[in-house]
């Protein structure tokens, strides 16, 4: 998620030095423009120059960011490099983020034995008001990953993420994350089309919003969940148009095209789009999570 990236960079630039500072400054400028793929080479150079913060940034990017396909091998690589780096002055603040990288890696691997340890980290008191963390933990409760499945707790955590979000100054991502899962969850007892619609109706999506594509895709799914398929088709067509523009700028997002096309096909056929019950969905996959799995 870009949200994590920008939180880290806010603290990194102030304390970086030498060549690492130069590279982090360039990366920061590119990330401000949502050019994540272009920022990666600068972050890699910063890591080579000894920046632990850059290593953590890269681990998050390869775990979470919608504009770069998930790559667990690279995420692990940069997490382990961060672990082995000698501590630098003022690096203590990075201790807040390292456990979150570890938890996300454990949730994303194929070993269910790691899920309990991961959710134990995420349930720590230090993260109780962290919206991205609350989102992931909510999804774990919604799907029963690492915790006993509990729809009520999942929804409470999503709601807490929304109420905590203003203090973090993000792009209202918690609202769209929650609306997305209320619309597309595989579990009928979790889905709540009217609540999802109430969440997105009050949200504006600016043309320069770095998450415009994903937000449009989410809103389309919400309208489809409320059987308003004509509106869903119109909005998904806008999402596809925006995605094609994104692809022209950042080829790394071309992998999302067929998922958007499949959702548009479902809406045109008068069907909402849901995940299948047998489709595993791990914590790091929020709005970006997609698959060829639609309701019959």
Which structural traits does this protein have?
296 residues, mainly alpha, 0% strand, globular, disordered N terminus
Describe it.
This protein is an all-alpha fold and 296 residues long. Helix content is 64%, strand content 0%. The chain is built from 14 helices and no strands. The protein has helices at residues 2-15, 18-32, 36-48, 52-64, 72-84, 98-108, 113-122, 131-143, 151-168, 173-184, 193-201, 212-225, 229-249, 257-268. α12 packs antiparallel against α13 (229-249). The radius of gyration is 19 Å and the shape is globular. It starts with a helix and ends in a 28-residue tail after the last helix.
Secondary structure elements and pairings:
Layout lengths: L1 H14 L2 H15 L3 H13 L3 H13 L7 H13 L13 H11 L4 H10 L8 H13 L7 H18 L4 H12 L8 H9 L10 H14 L3 H21 L7 H12 L28
Helix pairs in contact: 1-2, 1-4, 2-3, 3-4, 4-5, 4-6, 5-6, 6-7, 8-9, 8-10, 9-10, 10-11, 10-12, 11-12, 12-13, 13-14
Uncertain regions spanning at least 5 consecutive residues: 1-18, 282-292
Q: Residue share in helices?
A: 55-70%
- Give the percentage of residues in beta strands: under 5%
Shape: globular
Taking the sheet with the most strands, its summary is:
none
């Amino acid at each position: 998620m870009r949200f994590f990236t920008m939180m880290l960079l806010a603290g990194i630039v102030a304390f970086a030095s030498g060549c690492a500072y130069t590279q982090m400054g360039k990366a920061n400028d590119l990330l401000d423009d949502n050019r994540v793929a272009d920022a990666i080479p600068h972050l890699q150079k910063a890591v080579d120059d000894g920046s632990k913060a850059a290593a953590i940034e890269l681990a998050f990017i390869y775990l979470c960011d919608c504009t770069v396909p998930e790559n667990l091998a690279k995420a692990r690589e940069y997490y382990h490099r961060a672990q082995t780096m000698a501590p630098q002055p003022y690096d203590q603040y990075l201790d807040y983020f390292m456990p979150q990288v570890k938890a996300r890696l454990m949730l994303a691997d194929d070993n269910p034995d790691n899920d309990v340890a991961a959710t134990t980290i995420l349930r720590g008191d230090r993260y109780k008001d962290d919206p991205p963390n609350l989102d992931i933990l909510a999804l774990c409760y919604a799907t029963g990953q690492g915790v006993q499945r509990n729809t009520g707790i999942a929804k409470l955590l999503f709601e807490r993420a929304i109420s905590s979000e203003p203090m973090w100054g993000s792009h209202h991502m918690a609202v769209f994350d929650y609306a997305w899962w209320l619309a597309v969850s595989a579990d009928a007892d979790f889905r709540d089309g009217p609540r999802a619609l109430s969440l997105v109706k009050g949200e504006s999506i600016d043309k320069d919003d770095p998450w415009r594509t994903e937000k449009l895709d989410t809103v389309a799914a919400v309208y489809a969940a409320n059987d308003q398929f004509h509106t869903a088709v119109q909005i998904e067509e806008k999402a596809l148009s925006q995605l094609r523009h994104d692809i022209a700028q950042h080829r790394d997002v071309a992998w999302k095209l067929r998922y958007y096309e499949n959702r548009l096909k479902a809406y045109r056929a008068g069907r909402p789009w849901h995940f299948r019950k047998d489709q595993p969905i791990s914590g790091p996959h929020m709005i970006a999570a997609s698959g060829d799995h639609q309701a019959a």
